Amino acid sequence: MKKKLKISYNAPVALTFILICFATMIIGYLTSGRSTQLLFMTYHSSLLNPLTYLRLFTHVLGHAGWSHFIGNASYILLLGPMLEEKYGSKTLMEIICITALVTGLVNYVFFWNSGLCGASGVVFAFIVLASFTGFREGEIPLTFILVAVIFIGQQIYEGVVLSDNISNTAHIVGGLVGGVIGYLLNKK
Known about the structure:
This protein has about 190 residues and is mainly alpha-helical. Helix content is about 70%, strand content about 0%.
């Protein structure tokens, strides 16, 4: 007797996050980007505007275009299930929210003239966090060191040398958030 194969929703937070990002892309496309700018991009706006606070979290759902979305979605779908299995859905959701808030605040405070949208900070948090999977007390994983040097180093280099409209700061901050959270979650 053959057992039927079924599709499982194996990583609910990672999958739902990507589905929401996809829906946001569709809505952004249908509104010629107005919805993205209004709700899914953080920028320096009045502290009296309630949307300013909402956008500190929702900017990770909006993306500048399809290639931006596909790049981020690929990494999140690759790393998210592993991280969600290791740390749990609730913790992964908290990591996404913390990364969104920290990258949003850094952009709001330090980059008055630029908007920020996309899940790149979350991607870098996931990349660095994934390097902690083999962490043991009293040890620093070589994978963490290499990830920090390669990915964070590349972002610093590109931030200094290139002028490509990509927020390397969000990548660096996301990586730092992933590193701190990875250390705190695994030091026990």
